[in-house]
Amino acid sequence: MTGAKITVKCLLEAGVRDIFGYPGASLLSLMQAIGEEKKLNLYINAHEQFSAFAADGYARASGKVGVCIATSGPGATNLVTGIANAYMDSVPLVAVTGNVPLELLGTDAFQEVDIAGVTMPITKHNFIVKSVDSLASTLRAAFEIAQSGRKGPVLVDIPCNIFDETAKFPPVQNISRSSNNNPAIDFGPVSGLINSSLSPVICVGGGVIASGASDEVKELADKLCCPVVSTAMGIGAFDGTDPRCRGIVGMNTSGEADKILDGSDLLIAIGVRFSERMLCALRGRPGLKAVHIDIDPAEIDKNLSPFGALVGDAKEVLSQLNVHIDQRVSSAARCENVSEDPGIFGVLNEVFPDAIFTTEVGLHQTEACRKLKIKRPRGFITAGGLGAMGFGLPAAFGAAVANPGKKVINIAGDGSFGMNMPELATAVKYGVPLVQFVMNNRSLGMIEMLQKNRSENVKYCDLPQVDYKSLAKAFGAEYYSASDADSLRDSLIKAKKSGSVVLIENIMQELI
Amino acid sequence: MQTYLLSALVNNHFGVLTRISGLFSRRGYNIKSLTVGETEDPLVSRMTIEFFGDEHTLGQIKKQLSKVVDVINVSVLTDAVSRELFLVKVRADDSNRETVKGVAEIFKAKIVDVCPDSLIFEITGEENKLKVFFDMMKNYGVAEIARTGVTALQRGELTK
Ligand SMILES: Cc1ncc(C[n+]2csc(CCOP(=O)(O)OP(=O)(O)O)c2C)c(N)n1
Ligand SMILES: [Mg+2]
Predict the structure, then answer these.
(1) Proximal ligand: closest to the CA of A442
(2) Is domain A343-507 given the CATH code 3.40.50.970 in the classification?
(3) Could you confirm whether domain A188-324 is CATH 3.40.630.30?
(4) Per mean pLDDT, which range of A245-254, A401-410, B18-27 is the poorest?
(5) Residues of A in contact with B22 (CB under 8 A)
(6) ipTM of the complex
């Protein structure tokens, strides 16, 4: 069997159905083999960065491993931002790159880049396949690493001659990986801290979603009768329409979450990594102790020394921890819901109560994090760690591919849309009916705001004036505009009914 | 702050050293020395890492290292035999060769090369002894030095 066929068999074996990528000379044999396999769909994005972002969005929306492929040299380097994005947010991704033939490796051949070297700091692990005999075992290991423990991206670089060489397709070996039979965890210290706390608050992060621990978090909140806040990555881990859900903490915190923290003595942080943006939540609150539950032992005590910690998969840990937690009688709400006016986001929630939302990066993103109410895990997808503009539209594409029939809406700024515009044509080409919702403030709004906050002159934030109506037409998408709540509702309802790609331009009077 | 020795068993692949030294530089861990060599199992190498710093960073290094896929096991050595090897080229001609040799003998340093105006000594031992030797030799004029970095093994039970 050829290396190309072996690759295809390994993809199928790993349960892969959808792949995102971009052609190139080093992928010719692989593309033929993928094309001959009816069960595999290869989506060609407009740029390899979008292939990686789309695979990322696909993974976040489905919980499966996202797969992207790119050719050697520029194809591979174009993946880099997408891989870094997945690394920062612990998204399971397998990136396969073709490279120059083995005998040319290291000779600075045409389109040769040491992509394994380039991506070393932004992958969980990466491989260069040096023989067709190790191809299958390498690809199997890549999938295993991407989705085990703290998930993350893995890159497999394959010199193109290996796709044409032949080897036997080896059966799966039951490698009994040094069975992580965790020594029995002592729940005593942490459950003691929780049971003796007067006013605890739960903070959910991306780890809760990755582990599928929403039910267990809810059970804990039910027992403690306590409010729940979240990080940007944790949005949707706890039902956003539940009155106990009190918004996001950290740099772009909601006023409500801040009030909750003011009145709390214990923060039960689950699947969060205490980034510097989140640590702001603890600064200036010496009375607020933290306990930390995370799957990655290296996160415990990295940025914050907690009073108690449990290492393990959130779902497994919580299902055991909850047994040790005393049921409390519900007391009056700790503080009134002081929700801000949800504005545009209220209308979005009203028309699309059940959609998947993705975002770009900027003011529209921070506002969406604060104001959208997300009911379910995997219903909100945003570039939390890397903050890469350009992520949202390809991520929406990936999420829509993973969830046929479900509406996916990308909340975009006009600046961010400028970074990935051609991806709208990709969605039209494949008939993926996503909604591109552009909040057009004619500015790199977040940067403009930062300049104003520092009393600087606003510079370099103005954007080219795009005629979005003509643009939508040129790309084959429907176009609706909105300038107030009523026209917004009308446009959204039209988008909801439409089976095509829709571009909605929301004309903003203010930056946000 | 103190000096710690970590011993890591790693897969004997190309790229593993880059991966680990990259991790140290990326996270700003200040490593004094790092040595690698194949073990009794040709598929496995041992890395000995000498680190000067605080206990918190030590804990982080250990945890971050343990996450690297090619790392099999990491341990902090508490009671170890540690050795380093120096090659020291000392200026020595007919006028002082005997004196230099005499000093070197006290340290049990071996002469491994002789030239009309220099000698190369090979000396192994614990870092402190080597430093004293090196300081002594500076009096005669050290032309060049090459150090291996520290390698070490925990006494007694296996570090597997
Ligand atoms: C790839 C990339 N380049 C630059 C930035 C820095 N940056 C953060 S927000 C922002 C402005 C975003 O503008 P827009 O998409 O219009 O959103 P708005 O803030 O106006 O809502 C910029 C330039 C970034 N996050 N990502
Ligand atoms: Mg804008």
Answers:
(1) 2
(2) yes
(3) no
(4) A245-254
(5) 120-121
(6) 0.90
